[in-house]
């Protein structure tokens, strides 16, 4: 009886290069090669001049509470990275161009690049707006030409570059997609781990956060190779059985996690942070419109993803940054905009509305597959119960 050889897994991690900033550069190609920072909600939009050129805001002129959403590689060379406060970033790169985030455009380009990859390799795990895992095991094509073909498809669909790591598992693929950025391809087998992976910092392993990295450093472990050389018993003593064993395995490139092509969401939510803190009475109409719009977007999200919800909740953040939440359980699950708006309004009656509101959000949870239950996000004319 002939045995069929088992194929070694071939997993890719694809990461778009400086994704948000790269989308902006498609709209403003004159900014290529310059330090550009995207972020903040009160950032002035670029102003088009009569000759077709644009004037842009500069980071040094920003005043507010915003953070960096992303930055170009030129800005990163100056020390400006995502999640950094814009005011702090201005000290490092005062002349950098500052652009407001455009999440509708980012979501559209995210949809485009994922569709392009799926046309070649449909077994995809969606990890966020700008990254995916791809199972290439069953595709009869060498890794290098396959990676080039995927990258070309992404570029033709978006005009953007990406970086790809192809390895035997997700752990290594995630590390490798970052090794040759931007526009890189990294192919790695298990035999390459000592030369390519062990010299890297331990924090390069996805799952080793700042606290674990600090504890490892206190043990004299800085690189992945030093982690691999540490007896598992010592790791277990310091981190416990589960974490210690995991650290030992990942340092040796062991990761058996499968590609998950579908994830069951626990909740679906939408929220809006206002450009200015809104007064409950003076800005009643604006608040009412925003509240209704959020409810309808939640309903639309439920429909698109095929779910209904038994629990509807709200989230408010006041001008002093204090946040409150309330929720209500419905007698029957729904994805109807009117019912979600009504339930969220009941929640709103249970919170104090005695100060300005900075953020307003609506959350649908206790989700069930829609199956035979149908709903449409009908227009709602209800007002805020203020």
List the helices and strands and how they pair.
Layout: E1 11-16, H1 19-27, E2 36-39, E3 47-48, E4 54-55, E5 57-58, E6 68-71, H2 73-76, H3 86-92, E7 97-99, H4 103-118, E8 124-126, E9 131-135, H5 143-158, E10 162-167, H6 170-176, E11 185-187, H7 193-197, H8 210-218, H9 224-228, H10 232-239, H11 241-251, E12 267-278, H12 284-305, E13 307-318, E14 323-334, H13 337-348, E15 357-369
Parallel strand pairs: 2-7, 10-11
Antiparallel strand pairs: 1-9, 1-10, 2-6, 3-4, 5-7, 8-9, 12-15, 13-14, 13-15
Attribute tags:
disordered C terminus; Alpha-Beta Plaits; DNA polymerase, domain 1; single chain; 4-stranded mixed β-sheet; MutS, DNA mismatch repair protein, domain I; alpha+beta; 4 domains; 5-stranded mixed β-sheet; 15 strands; 13 helices; 386 residues
Shape verdict: globular
Residue share in β-strands: 15-25%
Average of per-residue pLDDT values: 89
Question: Which parts are unreliable, with pLDDT below 50 for 5 consecutive residues or more?
Answer: 374-386
Task: Give a description of the structure.
The chain has 386 residues and is an alpha+beta fold. The chain is 34% helix and 23% strand. The strands form four sheets. A five-stranded mixed beta sheet has the order 8-9-1-10-11. The protein has a four-stranded mixed beta sheet with strand order 5-7-2-6.
